[in-house]
Amino acid sequence: MKKKLLMIIMAIVLCFTMAACGGGGGDANSDIDPNATVTKEQYEKLSADKWHELTPEEMERYLEVRYVEDEESTKSWGKGYLVVDFPGPDEDSYIHVLFKEGDDGKMTPSSMSATGKFLD
User: Fold this and answer.
1) Burial level of 25, CB count in 10 A (0-12/13-18/19+)?
2) 55 within 8 A of 67, measured Cβ to Cβ
3) Using CA atoms, how far apart are residues 68 and 96, in angstroms rounded to an integer?
């Protein structure tokens, strides 16, 4: 009887523990500094690499910079699109990326452009 009671208590504690920490996993990009910006070198490397195959989250990990959704452009493009900006070294510089949802549900870039210092 004591063993059953102990097992039930342990199971309850385990459930609360899992709920308290979100059940593991978590955001794979949570270790990215929220104030990080893209450098010209990072942009050049991204442009030369397979940028057109990356999801928004993969591009965040690649650049180690969080994107900011361009809500107005995303709304303008409509369902199945996501428009994001990756901030650059100053407020006039950013990488603008249009993602489109494929038949498999995966978002991949349709276009990428840069402004400001990235064009120097």
Assistant:
1) exposed
2) no
3) 10
Q: Could you say which DSSP state residue 65 is in? A: -
The residue behind tokens 């397979």 is 50
Residue 17 CB coordination number (10 Å): 10
Picking from 53, 59, 60, 54, the residue whose alpha carbon sits closest to that of residue 31 is 60
Q: State the residue for tokens 């308290």.
A: 20
d(CA 100, CA 108): 6
| pLDDT tens digits for range 24-70 | 444 567 789 999 999 999 999 999 998 999 999 999 999 999 999 99
Report yes or no on whether pTM surpasses 0.85. Answer: no
Cα–Cα dist 120/116, whole Å:
7
The predicted model gives 67-78 an average pLDDT of: 97
| Beta partners for residue 85, in sequence order | 68, 96
Q: Would you state the pLDDT for residue 14?
A: 52
